[in-house]
Specification:
The chain has two domains: 10-44; 52-181, Immunoglobulin-like, CATH 2.60.40. The protein is 21% helix and 36% strand. The protein is built from four helices and nine strands. It has a five-stranded antiparallel sheet. A four-stranded mixed sheet has the order 1-9-8-5. The model has no long low-confidence stretch (mean pLDDT 88).
């Protein structure tokens, strides 16, 4: 006796059932939705909720971040004594209002530029040209930061917490408080 043979699947029906499975159709629908959103501008950047203050209004004003108070004095130019290179700088007075010294890494989390990759870590100096070092609590310090052309200064609050990588305590998680526009 022979065994009954089921329906014979053709190559076309086999490919169609494999290609148009429920999972593949869901994936295709998701890609279509993302594509339509992209075409109608659904991926445009949202407006920032951070208050924007023009530099002319910000001069002399005290901005409270956590753990510092920042007074913006404005833009000026500085000449490097060794290379005679002229650089535009932002002049600030920063007072550490926290209970512990604020190192240059923590300050670079508080002071940032809007451009990608322009960190204030290496370009922040004391107004007299000396290296930054640490800011002690309650002591106002005059600072200058190299100001990249056309970028705005963002002042942020930071949190003192343990690093998830090595357990050391530092200032992390900058949350923008104000953007000083040019």
């Amino acid at each position: 006796m022979s065994t009954p043979v089921g329906p014979v699947r053709t190559l076309a029906s086999s490919l169609a059932s494999d290609l148009f499975s429920r999972g593949n159709l869901r994936l295709l629908a998701g890609v279509a939705v993302v594509g339509v959103l992209g075409l109608i501008g659904g991926f445009d950047a949202a407006e920032s909720e951070v208050p924007r203050v023009p530099l002319a209004e910000a001069q002399g004003q005290t901005f409270v971040t956590e753990p510092a108070e920042v007074v913006v004095h404005g833009l000026s130019t500085r000449t490097d004594g060794l290379t005679d290179e002229v650089t535009e700088v932002m002049e600030l007075t920063v007072t550490n209002t926290g209970p512990r010294p604020l190192d240059s890494f923590g300050l670079s989390q508080i002071l940032a530029w809007t451009g990608d990759g322009d960190s204030t870590f290496a370009t922040t100096k004391r107004a007299d040209g000396n290296p930054l070092g640490a800011l002690n609590p309650g002591v106002p310090v005059d600072l200058v930061i190299d100001a990249p052309a056309g970028e705005n200064l963002i002042l942020s609050s930071v949190t003192w917490r343990a690093s998830t990588l090595d357990g050391s305590y530092r200032h992390f998680d900058p949350v923008p408080v104000v953007e000083v526009t040019r």
